[in-house]
Amino acid sequence: MPRKDTSIDLILVNSFAPRHRIASDAALENGLAIIRTYLEDRDFIVYVADEQRVSAVEDGVPTWLLTVLRWVVQLQGNPLVSRFKSLTLLVMLLAWPLQSITLAYRQKHMDKIIDNLATLVTTDHIPFVGIKVWGGAPYAWSKRLSAKIRALSPETTVIAGGPHVKVYGENMLAQGEFDLAIMGPGEEVLEELLKLRKTVPTKVEFMALVRHTFGPSPLIRTGHYSESGDYYAHTFIIPRYRPADMADKVWFHTLVDGLGCTWNKCAFCSHTRQSIHYTPRPLEEIKAEILAMTSRGIAFFRFSSSETPLAHGKAIAQMVLANGLKINYSMFARPAKVSKSTYEAYRLMIRSGLRAVFLGGETGHDVINDKIMHKGVVRKDIIDTIHCIKLAAEAEKQSCQVVLSMIYPCPVVPGVTLEDVFDANVRLFKEANPDTVIVNPPGVFPGTTWFDKPEEFGFTLSENYVYEWMNYEYSVSKPVEFWSTVNYKLNGMDMKEMLKELGRLNREITAMGIPINISDDYLMMSQAIGYNSQNDLFDFKKNSFVDILSGTSPFIKKITQRMNERSVDLAKSNYNQTDTASKQG
């Protein structure tokens, strides 16, 4: 049956989990909005399906069940209950069946969304579905969606993209669960695919054309992930958010400030798959995007590059200040050998609205950071950078908080024990005093030095290791010691032992009065509504954890409303700018 001219060319789907995993899961979805904007400007019709919203975690679950489960979760955190081990165990036993029933309702609701999308695709003969794939439960949901669509509409091409593809690449297609995958920016290659599809009557002929055009692999590498480093992604697109895109969302926008990494040598990091050196985005483009966002009431930004070098960060800050722009933003940074110019650069960035920095430290042991992590920094750099940011913030009479990211347990070298690394990490935390710490277990990801030479670093990987990691779900709802495990070992430790060791470090961190597992984007936004002290952060974590664990959203909904109101107020202060932001539909 021929398709109508006004019918949909492409459905873009944001995959999602049954529960929030972090409080900022429901941030504005910039990636899909960018693709839609680009393709609509070229007369394609694109529909975005995005169920990742603040209160959507409650959809499909009876209100009475959520109320009871929330009460039980709050009871678990009651100091009077936690004082008695037997009472704590009793409450946990009460919570488990409620959790299982709640998740069953959510699963049924998520399956209904799959059915609805598959029916839409089949009824309207939609030729393409693109899925932004996240790890864990969203990946499992994406596979079910793909299978349903391909069963009901065999002529539809299902394409995977997003963060999970960037990490796992060709492994995403090893079991044929998607027709194609795009590793890197998707808008330009999707335009090419849409045009190719119109030239042939069947999917079989289309796939033959794809192989002829892009090569035999169903994985299409684009932009900074392509082997040449310049395949497609010739322009940066400013997304047009619609009211529907912003409903029930946390209003911060992920802004592409550059591509690549200046170092790009870390042994553990999947960013090493990128084939170009760091490339900063032109300042005029960044300015235009900021103005476009503030015209929609969005004044909170998260810079997306894996590192914003000081020189580029300083240049952005100068542009922001020169144009009188009022924004708040967070960014990723590398520890630096601190000098007066470093201090002045951070002062300038904080003056321009920098409110949180995500700093990759990995370990407090210099030998391990050198020989194992290939990080290119020493503990003094980490400590000095954190102190520099704090001093710069104090000088500017502003708050700028630091997230320190670590990997533990980790490989070691002869003469260094894991206990040595543990002690070095603890000393680092005491001396640096970051605002929050995130500790991750040692993931061995395709395309990294650890993956290519596992034995050299003490890793033993099972035959199905990659597939297990692709499907792994981090469980923020319980202590790391109780997470599920993957079949791999580090120096004889299985994953259960690794998680137990990670939990030991987490307990040491919290005993110092440092909260764990709070992301830089939420640090940046929470400061705007008065969450400045470490006690505030502990309070935020405790209350948001109740929401996450119970599958409810009253606290996150309340602070999201306050954050969004603050975003609008801050954005309004830009309205007197002489530059006019491009109007958005």
From TrEMBL:
Annotated SMART domains: Elp3
Q: Which UniProt keywords apply?
A: Iron, Iron-sulfur, Metal-binding, S-adenosyl-L-methionine
Q: Which Gene3D superfamilies match?
A: Aldolase class I (3.20.20.70), Cobalamin-binding domain (3.40.50.280)
Q: Does the keyword Methyltransferase apply?
A: no
**Entry GO MF terms:** catalytic activity; cobalamin binding; iron-sulfur cluster binding; metal ion binding
Cofactor(s) required for function per UniProt: [4Fe-4S] cluster
The chain positions of domain Radical SAM core read: 245-479
Instruction: Kindly give the PANTHER family that the UniProt entry links to this protein.
Output: ANAEROBIC MAGNESIUM-PROTOPORPHYRIN IX MONOMETHYL ESTER CYCLASE-RELATED
Q: What is this protein called?
A: Radical SAM superfamily protein
